[in-house]
Amino acid sequence: MTSGQCFVKLLGQCYMGDGRLSAPGKDRLAERVEDALVKGNCRRAMGLLSRRSLLNPDSPEGIRVAHELHPGPIEGYEAPVLQPTENMDLPARITEEEVVRAVKSMGLSKSPGPSGLGPAHWRVLIQAQGVPEALAQAFNEILGAAQRRGYRALYEFRLVLIPKDETGSRYRPIAISETIMMALHKIVLSRLRTQILALLETEQIALHRMHMGGVRMAYTEMQADGTHAVSLGITNAFNSIPREEILRGLDQASVPLILRNHIEAFLQLRHAAHLDSVPCGVPQGDPLSMLLYCVGQNLFIKELKERYPRLIAYADDILIFHSDNSDATGIVTEATTLAKRYGLTVNTGKCQSTQRGQEVSFLGARSRRRGSP
């Protein structure tokens, strides 16, 4: 039995036994709030403190919502003909040291995936002689596998449905993958980051380490006389971006085929208890999520920029700047049509405009047309 097969069997044994974890209860509220505050996410911390109950994904309502939030491609979307990269370069093999660093970098308050093996368990396991070496071998085997369906169990995630408002009518799906697979994806991210940054439009700032500079720029731009801002709201963005757009972006970046194929398998083989497959999107909660989403929407941003050169985007948080001579409604209409070409849906009801006297925000920076009530 290979290292990769042993790895799958280990997680399977935990999954079938008492180690499998159900949805976390409210007794972990303090840990979650602390984790959100450490990351500077005050909004999330306040949301947690409101003690909103999670929707049970195994309930009939939870199953309905789960399917609703993981839709297929939108009507009329034409998937591109993919031309996989010819880059046959082999990325550097994953080392024991990288495995140890990746595991140690995950906060202990992170929830575990379906097996129940969380960061605390893996931190103990990697101290055992031979475990880092075995994990490195398993990771390299998984990345290089010609037939990946044998590893399907590794791509299962535990779905958590978090209410987006106090009414409990709208939910944000969080996909909690196996902890050790997130460690693998942290390493894969380090292999891809530089190459993907070279591909992305400079206005996409989510992967920039100093992205707060972009927030300051956006705020300054919004305050300038004669300048208006329009915010675009993308409906269920992370869960609806077509995987074909992501793969097309990876091909355009000439990502090594071995990494490109792993990501394709990851997107195709993702599943949960009541979701046999996930037809679109990237999981909210995986280290690769932000990178893959930005790759998937890059052509949309590029074409949008050709029409409106002054814009900035942090994932699906998009802001377009324009002069008094341009009409905000026309901008939203054109952006809506363009987004459909790439499988995205603009929620026109959530688009705000300073030209209309509305408050526009970008990552917490808020502005309203001077003189507006």
Description:
It comes from Giardia intestinalis (strain P15) (Giardia lamblia). Keywords: Endonuclease, Hydrolase, Nuclease, Nucleotidyltransferase, RNA-directed DNA polymerase, Transferase. One of its GO terms (molecular function) is endonuclease activity. The chain is α+β, with helices and mostly antiparallel strands and 373 residues long. It has one domain. It contains 15 helices and 8 strands. The strands form 3 sheets. The chain has a 4-stranded antiparallel beta sheet, sandwiched between helices. A two-stranded antiparallel sheet has the order 1-2. A hairpin with a 2-residue loop joins strand 4 (311-314) and strand 5 (317-323).
The gist of it:
The chain is α+β, with helices and mostly antiparallel strands. Helix content is 44%, strand content 10%. The longest helix has 21 residues, at 179-199.
Q: Share of helix among residues?
A: 40-55%
Largest β sheet strand count, sense and barrel closure: 4 strands, antiparallel
Helix-strand makeup class: alpha+beta
Give the overall pLDDT as a whole number.
Answer: 86
Helix count equals 15
GO molecular function: endonuclease activity; RNA-directed DNA polymerase activity
Pfam family, one: RVT_1
Keywords: Endonuclease, Hydrolase, Nuclease, Nucleotidyltransferase, RNA-directed DNA polymerase, Transferase
Domain Reverse transcriptase: 143-367
